[in-house]
């Protein structure tokens, strides 16, 4: 067992003769010989009353004496120099591990490439370098860079800039290609010429370039530089490479997140309800609140298309389901309407053509989705009145707010769209005098659950009561009121998609003003106003 001690072991009998000598003791105190008297070794510390530490053959040794039975004695010999080196190495390794742990934590948060790049250079100083420069892979012939420079007793200053790809130092270009350039004397000079190392004297400074791993090619390269007297040894370079690996993963994740966010924003924008096109004598009002506010899209939709004879096709509907899948189906339905209204403007026939198109789409993709819808054509007259011809496809009946204050329920019925080949489509014609309004809404209004117990539907009667006395309201204000009273009823509970479309006869020669309220990214309404 003693052969594996880290300390050397010398055991002497009562006469001072060395009876056991471990290999470590033989190496540290070669003068001691087994079988001979310990005093013959001529090592004064072995005979001292309090041996302690002493210098021997260029080493710092520590002696510890222990008395054994039968007047025997034992000396433990320890190389203090090796112990200190091991302790220093252990502390250094712990410091490196702690640094990399902090790096992993800090770089796990930024999900934007710019913030991630700034965090990389900020973390590199001063542990890895007095100055750090991160150069991202060039895009459109230009490379973006970030730099952090060590400041006395202050956080490193971070700035950024742009550089033509052709003007990059050759070592940077080599690193962007995936290779790790060897240390070159002129690398510091090139970095100074590029303006990357302000306040750093090129004389005696040292620099290294390490690629940052990406998905296929490096996400960028990291240049680290130290002032004279702070050289990079093998342990330093290993730490820089480990740091670069984590930085590359963070940047790759940030870039991927940014690209996916851009795609998602583009798709969401294309799936949002399209605002009604301006029409003579018509004032539009809309409100939209999806069930999943974070997505901003849902299964309710509305819009309008102008006709060559001066009228407009308008519609409001609701597809089955909610969320992304419902929004995609809504987009398909809107595209069909956009194409079909050019060949058919009679509401009933147009709704049947739309039904046939949806049946083909759902059967081809096995979706099995359907929609409810009110589709109409509005035509203005010289006296400022409007004629609305509306077809119903299983949707809630519209409401008409007369100038007298009376609220009429339009007797419009019909079957679901996208279910059977030849659905029964209801059709009705409504005349709006100047100042009168027709209101279309989705079941997210009437089926909103709230109240005192939180499970009572808003219902058609409460909706009628909410619009009573609102006949003088402009169409935008009326749509906003319907959304507001519905949300007040809901409180903070879950709800289905909510959509409202109001059209008001503005009178002869009076253009309408259109105000649309949508739920913003924080849940607040942001009104946008346009003039038709």
From TrEMBL:
The keyword Transport belongs to this UniProt entry's keyword annotation: no
SUPFAM superfamilies: GAF domain-like (SSF55781), PP2C-like (SSF81606)
Start and end residues of each PPM-type phosphatase domain: 282-505
Region (Disordered), start-end ranges: 509-532
Superkingdom of source: Bacteria
Transmembrane helix among keywords: no
Name of the protein: Serine phosphatase RsbU, regulator of sigma subunit
GO MF term (any one): phosphatase activity
Gene3D superfamilies xref list: 3.30.450.40, PPM-type phosphatase domain
Signal peptide: none
């Amino acid at each position: 067992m003693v052969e594996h001690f880290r300390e050397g072991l010398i055991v002497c009998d009562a006469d001072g003769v060395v009876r056991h000598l471990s290999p470590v003791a033989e190496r540290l105190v070669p003068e001691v010989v087994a079988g001979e008297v310990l005093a013959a070794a001529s090592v004064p510390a072995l005979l001292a009353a309090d041996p302690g530490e002493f210098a021997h053959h260029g080493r710092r040794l520590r002696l510890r004496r222990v008395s054994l039975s039968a007047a025997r004695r034992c000396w433990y010999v320890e190389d203090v120099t090796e112990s200190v080196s091991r302790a220093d190495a252990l502390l250094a390794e712990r410091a490196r591990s702690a640094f990399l742990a902090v790096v992993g934590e800090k770089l796990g948060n930024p999900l934007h490439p710019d913030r991630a790049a700034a965090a990389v250079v900020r973390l590199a100083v001063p542990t890895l370098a007095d100055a750090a420069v991160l150069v991202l892979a060039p895009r459109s012939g230009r490379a973006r860079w970030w730099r952090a420079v060590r400041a006395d007793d202050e956080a490193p200053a971070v700035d950024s800039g742009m550089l033509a790809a052709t003007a990059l130092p050759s070592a940077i270009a080599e690193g962007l290609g995936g290779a790790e350039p060897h240390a070159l004397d002129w690398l510091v000079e090139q970095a100074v010429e590029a303006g990357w190392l302000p306040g750093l004297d090129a004389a005696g400074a040292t620099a290294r370039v390490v690629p940052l791993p990406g998905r296929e090619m490096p996400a960028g390269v990291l240049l680290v530089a130290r002032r004279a007297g702070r050289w990079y040894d093998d342990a330093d370079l290993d730490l820089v490479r480990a740091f670069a690996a984590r930085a590359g993963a963070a940047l790759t994740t940030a870039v991927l997140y940014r690209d996916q966010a851009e795609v998602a924003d583009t798709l969401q924008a294309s799936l949002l309800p399209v605002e009604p096109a301006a029409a003579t004598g018509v004032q539009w009002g809309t409100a939209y609140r999806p069930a999943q506010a974070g997505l901003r899209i849902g299964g309710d939709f509305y819009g309008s298309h102008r006709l060559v004879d001066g009228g407009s096709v308008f519609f409001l509907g609701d597809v089955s389901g909610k969320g992304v899948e419902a929004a995609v189906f809504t987009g398909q339905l809107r595209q069909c309407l956009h194409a079909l209204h050019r060949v058919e403007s009679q509401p009933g026939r147009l709704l049947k053509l739309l039904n046939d198109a949806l049946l083909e789409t759902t059967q081809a993709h096995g979706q099995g989705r359907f929609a409810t819808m009110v589709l109409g054509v509005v035509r203005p007259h010289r006296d400022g009145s409007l004629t609305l011809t509306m077809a119903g496809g299983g949707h809630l009946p519209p409401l008409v707010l007369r100038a007298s204050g009376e609220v009429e329920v339009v007797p419009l019925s019909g079957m679901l769209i996208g279910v059977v080949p030849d659905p029964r489509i209801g059709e009705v014609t409504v005349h709006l005098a100047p100042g009168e309004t027709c209101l279309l809404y989705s079941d997210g209004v009437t089926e909103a659950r709230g109240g005192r117990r939180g499970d009572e539907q808003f219902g058609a009667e409460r909706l009628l009561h909410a619009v009573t006395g609102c006949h003088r309201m402009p169409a935008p204000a009326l749509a906003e009121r319907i959304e507001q009273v519905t949300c007040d009823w809901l409180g903070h509970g879950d709800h289905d998609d909510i959509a409202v479309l109001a059209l008001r006869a503005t009178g002869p020669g009076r253009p309408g003003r259109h105000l649309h309220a949508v739920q913003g990214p924080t849940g607040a309404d942001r009104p946008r106003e346009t003039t038709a």
